[in-house]
Amino acid sequence: MTMVEFFSFLPYGKYAFYVWLAYGVSALTIIALFVAARRNHSITLLSLNNKFSRSK
Amino acid sequence: MWKWIQRQASPKVFYQTCNRLIPWFFWPFLSLLILGLYWSLVISPEDYQQGDGYRIIFIHVPSAILSMMVYAVMAIAGGIGLIWQIKMAEVVAKVSAPIGAGFTIIALATGAIWGKPMWGAWWVWDARLTSELVLLFLYLAYMSLNSAFDNPRTAAKSSSILAIVGLINLPIIHYSVKWWNTLHQGYSVGTGGIKDLDMQIALALMFVASILLYALLVAIKARTEVLIREQNSRWVEEEVRSLMS
User: Fold this and answer.
1) Number of helices (H) and strands (E), helices first, in chain B?
2) What is the domain extent for residue B73?
3) What is the C-alpha separation between B150 and B129, in angstroms, rounded?
4) Cβ atoms of residues B114 and A26 within 8 Å
5) B237 touches chain A (CB under 8 A)
6) CB-CB contact of B94 with B225 (8 Å)
7) Residue B122, C-beta contacts closer than 8 angstroms, at least 6 positions apart
8) Number of domains present in the structure of chain B
9) How close, in Å, is residue A16 to chain B by CA atoms?
10) Which residues of B touch A49 (CB under 8 A)?
11) Per the CB < 8 Å rule, is A18 touching B60?
């Protein structure tokens, strides 16, 4: 059984695999952008805080 | 309005503006996204040729347009930084690059996933696909050049020149389906490609949501970048201390 047949129970039948894969990949990419931005922000805050605490 | 824009050249004012704008971008983005997804996946009818497979268009076209729009914004902001020495324009250019690369990846990936059932191939070396891939490489080149320098001003200068030279790729991507005989289909927007009203509404909603997503990510990422660049100013020290306490 191919992936296309396996996922054909979902909405859009024979195209289900492709449509949901496309929407899934896009969602993952956007989530990755948000996670990276958040991580970057907290790492920056931590290192700047360390720097300012040391200089006192 | 003009005064307000001029004031944004100050890092502290720009930082505060980003902070204030984040909820104004986030909530409209989220509501338009949900509405747009509903319109794309539920309300829009089947296509007479491609059945339900065409529904990939609602993310493919907005992200492809955004991949080019973000590049234009990046190059223009880089140019403003070069000509008028406005540091905040350099910040906007720098933080735009990974977002634009993200949109390009989405456009390429959804295009490949769409190509498989319609053309029978994930990838072909067609003019549209190849020029969009070159756009991804331009973003990656910009990002690596920008991170290759210790001094952010030097980094901004050299990478902005790269971005401006790379602008030549945008008309090539846009006109590729006209200039060459491509497997990629012709224009869907503005030329009567899509005729169904619900499909047009769904596409418009997803497009506006994508623009808001870009603005939101710029505001989020620019805050971090301003803090790094201005770390020797007193207000950054106070801001970091108040955030960490």
Assistant:
1) 9, 0
2) 20-44+56-238
3) 35
4) no
5) yes
6) yes
7) B112, B113, B115, B116
8) 1
9) 8
10) 240-241, 244
11) no
Q: Look at residue B194 and give its three-state secondary structure.
A: coil
* B49 falls within a domain: no
User: pTM of the prediction?
Assistant: 0.93
For residue A39, give its domain range: 3-55
Residues of B in contact with A16 (CB under 8 A): 52
Residue type, B170: L
Q: Which of A5, A20, A33 to mutate to test the interface with B (most CBs of B within 10 A)?
A: A33
Overall number of domains in chain A:
1
Judge whether B243 lies within some domain. no
| B21's tokens | 């704008």
From the candidates A2, A9, A12, A26, which should be mutated to test the interface with B, based on the most B CB atoms within 10 A?
A26
Instruction: Report the pLDDT value the prediction gives residue A56, as an integer from 0 to 100.
Output: 62
Comparing CB atoms, the residue among B56, B99, B240 nearest residue A45 is B240
Q: What is the pLDDT of residue A11?
A: 83
Task: Give the separation between CA A30 and CA B105, rounded to whole angstroms.
Answer: 10
By C-alpha distance, the chain A residue nearest B100 is A33
Q: Going residue by residue through chain B (245 aa), what tens digit of pLDDT does each one get?
A: 889 888 999 999 999 999 999 999 999 999 999 999 999 999 888 888 888 888 999 999 999 999 999 999 999 999 999 999 999 999 999 999 999 999 999 999 999 999 998 888 899 998 999 999 999 999 999 999 999 998 988 999 999 999 999 999 999 999 888 888 888 887 777 666 777 888 899 999 999 999 999 999 999 999 999 999 999 999 999 999 998 88
Asked whether residue B71 is domain-assigned, the answer is yes
| A20 reaches B (C-beta below 8 A) | no
Radius of gyration of chain A (CA): 21
ipTM of the complex: 0.91
Q: Which two tokens stand for residue B180?
A: 């060459």
